[in-house]
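[scheduler] slot 2 assigned
[scheduler] job type: sequence-to-structure, two independent chains
[scheduler] chain ordering preserved from manifest
[runner] begin chain α
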Amino acid sequence: MPRRTPIVVFLVLVLGMLPLLSCGDDKGIAGKVQTIVLITVDTLRRDYVSAYAPASVDIPQPETMAIDALAASGLRFEDARTPVPLTLPAHTTMMTGLPPAATGVRLNTYGRLAPRKTRGFPLLAESLRDAGWHTAAFVSADALNARYGLDQGFAHYDGDMPSDPRRSAVQLAERPGNQTVASALQHVRGVDSSKKLFLWVHLFEPHAPYAADGTYGGDVDEGSRVVGRLLKGLQKAGRRESAAILLTSDHGEALGEVRERSHGFLLADGVLRVPFLLTAPGLAPGVRQDPAEVADVAPTLAALAGVTWSTLAGPGCGLDLLKANAPTDRPRIAESLYGHHLHRWAQLVAASSGKGTLVDAGRDRLHWIPRAGYQRWIPRTKLVKDSPDIRRLAKHLADYRQFEQPDRMQGGQVAAGYGGGGVVEGFLTPAENARLADPHINMPNHYRLDDIKQAIMARPLPRALRAALAALEALNKPNLEAGSPSLHFWIGEATKRLAAAEPERAAKLLPQAEKAYLRAFELGRKDTQTLVQACGVTALGNEQASLDRLEKLVRQVPQPGCQYWILKIRLLRDLGDLEGAEAAWKAADALCRGGKYAKIWSTTCR
């Protein structure tokens, strides 16, 4: 389906013809800043930071003393939002000052951010490095692995996660914040004290699974304690007094809001509103009520570094928050393509005002989510009447759709825990979107699928696998999950495992598993894992047909991974094509040698 961007908007985006912001009025503060520290605490709800949550609220009070102390020493922005409730795209927005529709990074499924000359816009680290700053980043989860491209501009990028045999195949690789902070502080101590330093530290507490005491609040408290250790370490290293420190989050956690347990799918306050704290030498403490966004990170920190930052005009673009207050009617846009990518549900895009959030799920299917203070449960109501505020928000949504740059979007392998990879689809037309299931209604089906998936991964007895298959088939009905790539993938997984548990039925079950995997691939789960299962589950005795299918389907997979090469080599060897197997081994050795499948590679493919 064609998607056209108006010529004027296209020129603004690609050529950067509208430079709006520079260090300007911030030169006095910028001259005192020798260290810039960006702290991103993943999945941190605004109202779980006690500096934001009033004591009168009848909820478990957080113990975020280190974060609260930072809030007291600088500016606390009361109304800051993220444009997307997922780690990689939200951090990309922070580092570019551009919304996901403009960067092209819209899910945790991505290839690699293009080099600067190709992509046409800078990363914050690139601009600071060019200005003579030493740049270093330390991240705590595989969703920010250097392979996605945010390492560009950093002289040192520490994103390797330790192996953990207890981690499930679908659990995101991560490391405790204490380890990340220890590595960061060790690096800081090795940087010449006369050198200007930009340090980004990403903490994965309090992202699920909650490790501190099994609760979200416990993980929030632990994350704050880790922040405190970082700040104390910077003080001991002689970097604190000259430091501008900005703490924010990529998104929050729904915790049951509008029927969502975690984040990624829906667009309510629990996932969109985030803390945003800024302290710097010479910056007076205070509270700001003007609307902020995580896109403001790059232009604001660039200004504090004394670096001119040219940004673009458009919905969701960042502002230098120290140059001037953001306009009170500033449109804040958010999007979620995750439910569409995972289950082929409708795409969501939202615009927020001081009164609430308008969520567009396709044509006239609009949801109004009122601003509800500190309630843990925000009701969802259908929009029943027109108003000037609704019309204004609807116009902002239309403008944002036109801001999309589909040429910048890439598919890729997905970080574990976030479903299948493959090509990321851009905005559908309102009419196309309206024909798809509404995520607000279908969230319970996702969690039913999630519970079944967990049961399948627990390696149950055949009886339990048969029960899981029956439960999956019950979800596979019109208007529920019939078009879900994820559902069909797990039908394949359960069927394949049942075949292994009941070998006498394998001849019947394995073709059924193959059919389910192929359906998942056809529906859009075009990643290496699905490809290999679809082409390998019935390969024994059908090697040539499996190889032919593998080579045909791999053309649709962005950046095929090591599993593809392992299967290809095994099929070639079984067919007696040793020369072809050797050529494939040489082509993929660098890719597979140090990756997740390195052990399999070294023992079966040499």
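[runner] end chain α
[runner] begin chain β
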Amino acid sequence: MNIKIKNCNNIDSGEIGIQPDKLNIKLGINGAGKSTIARSLRMSIDGKDLSSLKPFKHENDKTDEHAPAVSGLDKIRSVKVFNEEYISQFVFKPEELIENSFGIFIKTPDYTEKMEAINALIADAKKVFQEHKGLDQAIKDFEQLAADMRTTAAGSLAGNSKMSKAFGGNGNILENIPDELSSYTNYLKSDSNVKWLKWQAQGNAFLDLDSGCPYCIAPTEEKKERIKKVSEVYNSKTVENLGAIIDVIGKLGDYFSASAVSTLDGIVKKIEGLNKEDEGFLVELKEQADRLSNHLKKIQNLSNFDFKDKDKAKEEINALRIDIRLYPYLDSEKTQQVVATVDASITEVVDKIGLLKGQIAQQESLVRNAIENNQKKINGFLSCAGYKYQVELLREENDIKLRLRHTEGTKAVQNGDQHLSYGERNAFAVILFMYECLAQKPGPDLIILDDPISSFDKNKKFSILHKLFRGSHSLKSKTVLLLTHDVEPVIDTIKIMPDKFAEFTVASYLRNRNGSLTEEAISYGDILSFKQICDAVLETHSNKLIKLIYLRRYFDVLDDKGMEYQMLSSLFKKASTPYIKNGDDERDFTSEQKSETEDKISELIKGFSYDELLAVLGDKTQIVEAYKQAENGYEKVQIFRLLEAEHEDHVVRKYISETFHIENDLVCQLSPQKYDPVPDFLIGACDLYIKRKLPSELDKHTDVQPSQSH
């Protein structure tokens, strides 16, 4: 698929290709727009507004001409991206290495199938909820009642509980309205009594402003004290608590025994507050309500996790029966119906206990194998990559969590991101990301890895690359976009191990020139030794200075300090006579050595003459002409060095003198002629220097005199 990107950050326009079911490696220098590609693709696939990607240069343009846009993703419906945001949101949680360890490592299709089989067998135990439709709400009401009757550690009714506040010192104040406030009875006992009390209290603040009633402008002299007393006797929060508790008790009425209903009725209608006997009754009622609701919730949430030992399955099932004798305050006809249904359902499950034990055994085997296999695979990778950590999948209550342990320690590491180095953190994160992608059913249509391995050394890079894209449990068959500024993954997959990667890997080089993004395919033949690159330049390039630059570097790479190297080195130092340097010892070429060496170099660069090229190097006009003829940034930088210009920017000077001068550690590389590694800003700096600094010197045609010293 061909994806077009427009007006996204530093990309004015560009097009990249992504081949389905393959690893698509996009190599590019920093600033090429790799992260912008990842972000724009993800936002577009997720259907998000792209306006945040609008380039700053167009921020005041309200037309559609410069609006961010991405096209070509019609077949991609879901995407998952590995980047810093992923690491911060999903990895290195306080209690486990990755969020949802159970779903990622254990919940396979086979596990789900066994889980459904077990749930089908224990479904009979849940029949009570099918036959008693209001039981779910009753459990919630029991929980609310228990919360309203909160108790202390000593087992008495808490003074700050809703029950104490509602029935505290004055009992049920709605059932015992003072005679002088009887005219307000309809308001106090209405369904809107709390709202009315709040409204009435707010009006009290205006009673003393005038002799008239703030509600009706009628005289209030005789009624003022009575009006104020409403707020003194009836606190809106107390009335609200009282109404809530009475409502819950009313909903649960059918579950209370006759004696409990009678006692509760007396409590809620009492004139005085609660006594010790009342509190004792309420505490016991709360305790029984707690136990019954918890028992019913255990049946409601019964799952495969509740059977950790198949041999105790029958015992655990029978433990779900309800003994009504333990709930005297709840021994009603309604509760007895629930208990009977529970007992009948449990009996049906027990009749199938043999089948249940068989399914539990099979599921236990699946979980055990999943734990062992995943631990083995991850720990094998950690060992090969040189990390002194191991992972463990541990059962914790009704869950399984992935924990980290140092090989020299015995306890699980808490807050892994605080103990791991930056490289270790990224290595763990990208491997866990792979497992999460594989666990998703269906998996994402596109997986984007935004520079996932550039921070590692060579051994760890390949270990991670191999883990991600080799073997049956990897991203090998997925559509993956890997964005990187590191050439090694390209060399490893395309050149070094094509038999392992080539069938499902394609690579290309990203180039962003002034906002125009292009890509150039990278094949096996494009990854060359410097000798191959040098041979091609010597054969095809027209400019001798450029040929000399490549030839000199070729000798550097080979560490060949023979006569040819010595002559070229002398030439680039503009020595009037070539010389041989051996440690601190220096001596000039003899005329015979000079002639013989020129002949050898002429075999590579026809017509080579030391003196003629020395004159060229002494003429800045010819050097600048060669600079203009250079076909890529790499060549321009090498020629710029020949001007011996001291650029005023120290960073630019460092790039020119060192970074893009001689890179002896690269045995295999991409040709800088085809895959230009030099960023635009560096060439721009060189262009500007030549434009600003050299015109006056070139107009004078003043040659630089050859150096007379070595």
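[runner] end chain β
[qc] chain β: Residues 135-277 form one domain.
[scheduler] slot 2 released
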